[in-house]
Structure formats: structure tokens, C-alpha cells
Design a protein that fits this description.
By secondary structure, the protein is an all-alpha fold. It is built from eleven helices and no strands. 29% of the residues are buried.
Length: 199
């Protein structure tokens, strides 16, 4: 029995969108921040069709941004110690950063362009992962604002810090990744030693 025409049309639309996103990711991996036209050529799709899916470059790059929907980066058997939990999360967070570096760089670059109200970078996902790692502190150290601490850790461990370490400080990507993990642990140690981030 043949699928109804609306079903085939919907599948074709989804395939076209996926092809454009895949093309954008491939171009980003080559160091190119793609325009809609470039993604259309890469995907062998007409420019007119591509613009129906992505009316501008920002929408295209946002779609190519890594989609990681996990609410936690911790394993099922995560330890109770906040420092161990944070190290597990930072290890996975840094791996994601390294795997998706071209896309994250492009998203950050477009987010910094003047005249655009909506940022390309999605906000809050990494903060949620870090807050999840630090959650036991709510019971063991109630004087520490876990959400504020998660923000402080994220500020020292994200793509922005990574880019500075590689492009300005001249570290290798591996050394920059190790530095990010050290940064996160140092922020947590300071809070545990009685020097939490300012409210």
C-alpha cells in the first residue's frame, strides 16, 4: 500500500532540511561559515529551495549547532562527591566542545555581530549539566548557591575560554582542554574553601 502524498511530502521536506544542515556542518568542519547559497551548492539543492528552509545565515548556523538534548552528562552510577561528579561532566563537556569546535566557533562569531537581538548560541544547556553535577552541595553545603557556582564554572570552561586559550595564549587544543577542566575544578575548590562566587 502506497504512503499518502502528505506523508511522502513531509518526509521529503525533512530529508531536504537534513541535507542542508549536514552540508552546513561539513562546511563548518572545513573552516567555512556557510551562507545559505554555499550550503545549497554543497547539498545539491536549489538556492530557492534552501531559502525556504533557512531565510538567512544565522538560522542555518543555528540549525547546524550541536543538538545534545541530554539533561545530564553523568552516568547512571554517578558518584555522590561533587568534585568527582564535576570532573565527569567537564570531561564530557570538553569532548563535545572539541568535537563541535567549528560549529561552536561559527555560532559564537555570529552571536557577536552587532544588530542581532537573538543569539545564535543556545543558552543554559551547559550550566544545567554543571548544576546537575553540583547538586549534592544543596544538602551538604547549603550556604553555596549552586546555580551561581554553575555559572562561574561555565564561564571558565566554555567555548569562549577555549578560543582564547588556543588563539591568544597559543595552547594546543589538548592543553586548552586540560586547562578548561582545571579551571572548573579550581572554581569548585574556591567555593568549597569558603570563597564562593559573588551573588
Amino acid at each position: 500500500m502506497a504512503a499518502p502524498s502528505w506523508y511522502s511530502s513531509r518526509n521529503q521536506k525533512e530529508r531536504t532540511r537534513r541535507a542542508l544542515v549536514a552540508a552546513a556542518r561539513e562546511l563548518l568542519a572545513r573552516g567555512i561559515t556557510p551562507t545559505v547559497e554555499q550550503a545549497a551548492v554543497e547539498a545539491a539543492i536549489s538556492r530557492t529551495t534552501a531559502y525556504r528552509y533557512f531565510p538567512n545565515q544565522r538560522r542555518l548556523v543555528a540549525a547546524a549547532h550541536p543538538e545534545i538534548e541530554h539533561r545530564t552528562l553523568l552516568p547512571d552510577d554517578a558518584p555522590a562527591d561533587p568534585a568527582e561528579r564535576l570532573d565527569l561532566v567537564l570531561a564530557e563537556h570538553v569532548r563535545i566542545l572539541l568535537d563541535w569546535e567549528p560549529q561552536l566557533r561559527a555560532s559564537l562569531r555570529l552571536s557577536l555581530e552587532p544588530g542581532h537581538a537573538a543569539p545564535v548560541l543556545r543558552r543554559g544547556r551547559a550550566i544545567g549539566w554543571i548544576a546537575d553535577a553540583l547538586a549534592p552541595l544543596q544538602h551538604t553545603r547549603p550556604e553555596i548557591d549552586v546555580q551561581r557556582l554553575a555559572v562561574a564554572v561555565r564561564s571558565a570552561t566554555g567555548i569562549e575560554a577555549f578560543i582564547w586559550l588556543v588563539d591568544v595564549a597559543g595552547l594546543s587544543r589538548e592543553d586548552a582542554a586540560a586547562q578548561l577542566r582545571w579551571n572548573g575544578r579550581a572554581v569548585l575548590r574556591a567555593a568549597l574553601d569558603g570563597h564562593p562566587p559573588p551573588r
